[in-house]
């Protein structure tokens, strides 16, 4: 019993249970960034504001490929403020995407500003790989609680 429990905990920590329940289609020609870009395009998104980073680069590349204009800014809050402005002026959802950790935390003021104005806004934050969460991965923080 104790050995089985220890093995179960070890399998969980190594991400083996996650891999059992979340299958990846190795034959799929598309990656997650392409799926995100297709959904944004289908919802009429014309602009994507960002401060580019490694965690989100597949989304940025795929968005440009489907005709969404990617606008790089110098600060994450600026990306969200710009998405908020597009939302207010166009009546469409404004979209910003930022890298994980500090990229997400830097958006708090602008997100709260959009919330108070009741602007439709989507913020996409990058994240550490699921198997690396809680293990000291680059910029790994609990973003959802924020």
Written account of the structure:
This protein has a domain of 96 residues: Rossmann fold (3-Layer(aba) Sandwich), CATH 3.40.50. 45% of the residues lie in helices and 13% in strands. The chain contains 7 helices and 4 strands, in the order H-H-H-E-H-E-H-E-H-H-E. Strands 2-1-3-4 form a 4-stranded parallel sheet, with helices on both faces. Strand 1, helix 4 and strand 2 form a beta-alpha-beta unit. Helix 5 packs parallel to helix 7. The radius of gyration is 18 Å and the shape is globular.
What are the salient characteristics of this protein?
four-stranded parallel sheet; 146 residues; 45% helix; alpha/beta; 13% strand; Rossmann fold
Structural class designation: alpha/beta
- The CATH homologous superfamily name of one domain equals Thiamin diphosphate (ThDP)-binding fold, Pyr/PP domains
**N-to-C SSE string, H for helix and E for strand:** HHHEHEHEHHE
Alpha carbon gyration radius = 18 Å
CA(first)-CA(last) distance: 39 Å
CATH architecture of one domain: 3-Layer(aba) Sandwich
Our count of helices gives: 7
Helix content: 40-55%
GO molecular function: acetolactate synthase activity; flavin adenine dinucleotide binding; thiamine pyrophosphate binding
GO biological process, one term: isoleucine biosynthetic process
Family: Belongs to the TPP enzyme family.
Protein name: Acetolactate synthase-like
